[in-house]
Amino acid sequence: MALALRPPVLRERDFRRFFIGYATSLFGSSMASVALAFAILETGGGGTELGLVLAARILPLVLVLLAGGVLTDRWGSRQVMLAADVTRCLSQAGLALALLGGDPHMATLIALVAVWGAAEALFTPALDALVPRIVRRDALSDGNALLGVARSAASIAGPALAGVITAAAGASAVLAVDAVSYGVSVIALLLLPRTVRDAGPASSFVAELREGWTEFRSRTWLWVTSVHVCLFNLLVWAPFLVLGPLVAQRDLGGPASWGLVMALYGAGAVAGGLAMLGRRPRRPLFVGTAATLGWAMPSAALAAGLPLPWICAAALTAGAGSSVCGTLYTTVTQSQVPPGALARVSAYGAFGAFALGPVGLAAAGPVSVLVGVGGVLGFGAVWQLAAVAVVLTLPAVRAALQQPGMTTPAPGGNRDASTPSPSS
Prior knowledge:
Blueprint: H1 2-5, H2 13-42, H3 47-75, H4 77-100, H5 106-134, H6 140-169, H7 171-190, H8 205-217, H9 220-252, H10 255-276, H11 284-291, H12 296-303, H13 308-336, H14 342-355, H15 357-371, H16 373-393, H17 395-398
Helix pairs in contact: 2-6, 2-7, 3-4, 3-5, 3-8, 3-14, 4-5, 4-7, 5-14, 6-7, 6-10, 6-13, 8-14, 9-12, 9-14, 9-15, 9-16, 10-13, 11-13, 12-13, 12-16, 15-16
């Protein structure tokens, strides 16, 4: 219990500073999405307008990810993250001002949200590259687990608070708070040591992309687990997000029931992250992949028509498995990929995870008309069970891969530009 309440990794000054800033910005951004949606609806927009704004964030996120990986490996993670958070701070301040008048131009909202998504794409691979610099190698797993806990906690508390603030002061107030939260993150990043390029002499953008791809595809465990997560998003998670609310509306009592299911998913993710603190599985890839069995449970429970308590329990289990998987996959990647290519490799993994998600979201409804809601959700559950079984049989995943980072570097090592980066 004491370990979970005060993890030793928080004694690391640089990580502690970054964690405070990152958690603050997460909380702000989790509120912003809810407030922006209500603002569009309250100013006369409908599903089409809301869909355009949501797409305006997702599309740049997908398109800019690989560029974010190249720029991070070229310029340094801290510098790229600073640029990303300054940009996000300004974009959210712009959104707050645009909504303050009560009748924003849709083109303005779309443009600002697109900038928000592009900056998020820069930040995402840089985050994976930064963590090994501010955490000792033997504490990487704890650092990643704690960051996952922050993300999950924000996803629960942020939307709830956003609803309250939006009702009391309007959506512009929430977006102003989000802008301030990114400002806090900028301050935290400024307090970190400057990072520099680990890779060799600068080459062309395309050449650096190819180098990152070579690193990515040369590790069977890496591209296999990435494909596993990609197909999960396409066949399991996207249909669950689209069809789950329909089942809740039809059979479970409406939006309140669905909100409870998603809240328990987040609570499970928090619990799973806390449970990972201090734990070092001998075969992290095997354990992480096995944990993704939980992803099949919510879809299976909905497809089987189980009562709400069983669906909530399934969501809780899936959330816990998501944290375990995310923590272990990220830690192994950070430990096994050379620092000079880590951001590009992370970008390829994130690109794969995001790329087919919109396809799944768009296809879930039409396919359910043909085969039924239960058929789509049931297929997703069966797919996930079969996929996990296949991945676990692969030698690269099954092998007794001792989690890297079991030795502690010298005090102050692997922290900033004046010290060498962790070896792969």
